[in-house]
Design a protein that fits this description.
- The chain is of the alpha+beta class.
- The chain folds into four domains: about 60 residues, Winged helix-like DNA-binding domain superfamily/Winged helix DNA-binding domain (Arc Repressor Mutant, subunit A); about 110 residues, Beta-Lactamase (2-Layer Sandwich), CATH 3.30.450; about 110 residues, Beta-Lactamase (2-Layer Sandwich); about 110 residues, Beta-Lactamase.
- About 40% of the residues lie in helices and about 25% in strands.
- It has 17 helices and 18 strands.
- The strands form four sheets. A five-stranded antiparallel beta sheet has the order 5-4-8-7-6, with helices on both faces. A five-stranded antiparallel beta sheet has the order 10-9-13-12-11, with helices on both faces. Strands 15-14-18-17-16 form a five-stranded antiparallel beta sheet.
- Helix 1 packs across helix 3 and helix 2 packs across helix 3.
- The longest helix is centred in the middle third of the chain and has 23 residues.
- It comes from Methanogenium marinum.
- InterPro entries: Biofilm_reg_signaling, PAS, PAS-like_dom_sf, PAS_4, WH-like_DNA-bd_sf, WH_DNA-bd_sf.
- Pfam families: PAS_4, PAS_8.
- This is PAS domain S-box protein.
């Protein structure tokens, strides 16, 4: 069998050297030292194979190497591993991928050998051997098989194709395709798909898929719960833009192909009144939302909306803003002086944090001049020890106290102020102070009159 392949190779190489000259059978036979009938047989095989071309000159047949790509050479252009064996499992032909994959340096070496004797594990697989035997015997066989190579952990998809050799005898073409990377990719995608399905089902955020018209085509359980809907089919087909109050903003973002985030609002009472959805929720719902374009298997435009319920947080912020506004109105509008300070230097002094308008008038000082300053440094005339002790007691016990009247500045025009001090939830200390200078003056006058009456 090796001489058969060698003879074919010698004829091809001889014609290649003489190209483009056309050579007769007799000349080939004479120059290569082979019998004329043998040369004729091999030339016919090469012609059928597409490796040589023949033209007639009278009764003579003249041959030259073919300018066309031989059929066997076509197999060298593909990545699949191709090997052709005869009915005795001997290798007739193999392509470049075969030799490369199995690291066979000498391409002539396996030709003519039984494929099971090549030492290649894949062809020693009993299942593959039995399938080849069934093909040879004309029995039902498998067109496709999968093989896992225990040594390399490579996975091969194998095809078995009955064919006919150049001499007309039965042969088998075996095609092997290394699909390890493909299988690993498919497995990874399968795992990713499973993860995505798990996220879609279990994530607490609502997820809506919708098309370019806004019609909802899919929704997860969290979306139904957030919208107060029990029946999945009630939401499917509903137009997203009819559900939210900020539809123009979303439409504009989608029009320019942008992903984005926004806050959306749903007026559930309006939605129920207009028979858009029959939600179990009432009032307004506020949601933090993000939307983006997603790939579609159908080729049409599809989008996803991910949203979270922030109604409680939003309402708390609204209430806080209202309370802050109310507090600020009270703080600045009350006729009682208010001073807010925070302990500093381990209670030795106190940082002034805020002052209301009434206190500015009482002390005849600007708010900007006091904020951030230390109490006892700005007002050294205060009875520091008694004030410090009172403030620290309130800070430690959180029990409000009334401080006896005192002056911030020692002069006859400085008002006498009484203080009600208490601790705020913020850890700061607040002091409400009232000017009682007139009351003290009346009391002093009354005492003088009383003394005069008895003298």
């Amino acid at each position: 069998m090796e001489s058969y392949q060698d003879t074919l190779t010698n004829i091809r190489e001889y014609l290649q050297e003489k190209h483009p000259q056309k050579i007769s059978i007799s000349a080939i036979s004479r120059n290569l030292g082979i019998h004329r009938s043998t040369a004729s047989k091999y030339l016919e095989i090469l012609r059928l194979n597409g490796q040589v071309t023949m033209c007639c000159y009278g009764k003579s047949k003249l041959y030259t190497i073919s300018d066309r790509i031989p059929t066997t050479s076509l197999f060298d252009c593909i990545n699949e591993i191709i090997v052709i064996i005869d009915s005795n499992s001997r290798i007739l032909m193999a392509n470049k991928s075969f030799f490369s994959k199995f690291n066979i340096k000498n391409e002539r070496e396996p030709i003519g050998k039984n494929i099971q004797e090549t030492g290649l594990d894949i062809f020693s697989d009993i299942a593959i051997q039995k399938n080849i035997d069934r093909m040879v015997q004309g029995k039902t066989f498998l067109d496709d098989m999968l093989h896992l190579d225990d040594k390399t952990n490579r996975i091969y998809a194998i095809k078995f194709i009955p064919t006919v050799s150049h001499d007309g005898n039965q042969s088998i073409m075996i095609s092997l395709n290394d699909i390890t990377d493909q299988k690993q990719t498919e497995e990874a995608l399968s795992i990713s798909d499973e993860k995505l399905r798990t996220i879609f089902k279990r994530v607490p955020s609502g997820i809506l898929f919708f098309n370019e018209e806004g019609n909802i085509i899919n929704a997860n359980a969290a979306a139904l719960s957030l919208l107060g809907i029990e029946d999945y089919h009630e939401l499917i087909g509903t137009n997203l833009f009819n559900l939210v109050c900020q539809k123009d903003k979303i439409k504009k973002g989608l029009m320019y192909g942008k992903a984005g985030g926004t806050e959306i609002t749903c007026d559930f009472d309006l939605l129920k009144r207009d028979n858009i959805i029959s939600s179990s929720r009432s009032g307004r719902g506020y949601f933090e939302a993000a939307f983006t374009h997603i790939a579609s298997e159908t080729g049409s435009q599809e989008f996803a909306l991910l949203f979270m319920d922030v109604t409680t947080d939003r309402m708390a912020k609204i209430e806080l803003k209202f309370n802050e506004s109310r507090y600020r109105s009270f703080f600045n509008g009350t006729c009682t002086g208010v001073l807010i300070y925070q302990p500093a230097d381990k209670g030795d002094d106190f940082i002034i944090k805020d002052v209301n308008n009434a206190l500015e008038i009482i002390l005849q000082v600007k708010k900007e001049e006091l904020i951030g300053k230390k109490l006892f440094e700005e007002f050294p005339d205060l009875p520091i020890n008694s004030v410090r002790e009172a403030l620290n007691r309130v800070d430690n016990t959180e029990i409000p106290e009334i401080v006896p009247p005192l002056q911030y500045i020692k002069n006859e025009n400085s008002p006498w102020l009484t203080h009600f001090i208490f601790k705020l939830p913020t850890g700061e200390i607040a002091s409400f102070m009232m000017d009682i200078s007139k009351e003290l003056s009346k009391e002093v006058t009354s005492q003088k009159v009383h003394v005069n009456c008895f003298t």
